[in-house]
Amino acid sequence: MVCPVGRKQGEIGAGAVLIALAALAVAVSPDHWANLVLGGLLALCGAALIAHGLTLRAPVLEVEDGEFRYIRGRYIVRIPFSDIGSYYLLSGRTRSLGLCDMAGRPRVFPSTEGRRASRPYLPLTGMTSRHKVDAFMAGAGIPQRDRSLTTGG
Predict the structure, then answer these.
(1) Angle value at C-alpha 108, between 106 and 113, nearest 5 degrees
(2) To 10 degrees, the CA torsion angle through 134, 140, 143, 144?
(3) What gap in Å lies between CA 112 and CA 122, rounded to an integer?
(4) Strand, helix or coil at 140?
(5) Dihedral, CA atoms, 15, 21, 24, 26, nearest 10 degrees?
(6) How many CB atoms lie within 10 A of CB 34?
(7) Of 30, 56, 78, 115, which has the highest C-beta tally within 10 A?
C-alpha cells in the first residue's frame, strides 16, 4: 500500500485478524502442541503488525511564524509565505501537494524517500480529503493555482 494512513489501518486490521486466528487455532485443540505453536506464532505476528501500524505517521501541514511547514517523520520542509505564490493538488494513488513560487513555477523538493531525485510535490496520504487541504491553504492565505489552459471568462 502506498498511502501511509491506509497502510496504517491495513496493518492494524491485519494484526487484529491474525490475533483472532491465533485464538481460534488454540480454541480448536488446546491440548495439541502444533495448535499452541501455530497460535503463538500468529499472535506474535499479529502483535508485531499492530505495533508497526501504530508507529506510522501521516504527513502534517502547519502554518506558524510566517512560514509553511510540511512534516513527514524526520523529513521537514519549511518555506516562508513570501516564497509561496500558489498551490495545486495532484490526485492519483498518492495524493500530493505542489507549491509554486510567485512566478507560477513549481517548487522542487528533495525526495522524501532519501533518494537523490527531487520532485515538484510533497506526498500527502490517499485518504487526505481535497476539501480539507483546500480549507487549510485558504486559511493560510495561499491561493489555488488555476490549472486550466483557457483564460476562462
Answers:
(1) 135
(2) -30
(3) 8
(4) helix
(5) -80
(6) 9
(7) 56
Strands 109-110 and 118-119: antiparallel
**Residue appearing with cell numbers 515538484:** 120
CA–CA distance, 144 with 100 (Å, rounded to integer): 10
Question: Cell match 523529513: residue?
Answer: 75
Residue among 79, 72, 116, 78 nearest 96 (CA): 72
pLDDT at 2: 46
Residues 66-85 pLDDT 10s: 888 888 777 888 888 888 88
Q: Check: CB of residue 97 under 8 Å from CB of residue 112.
A: no
Q: What pLDDT shows up at residue 127?
A: 62
Distance separating alpha carbons of residues 70 and 12, to the nearest angstrom = 25
The neighbour count for residue 39, using CB atoms within 10 Å, is 21
pTM above 0.85, yes or no: no
Q: What is the dihedral of CA 47, 49, 54, 55, to 10 degrees?
A: 120
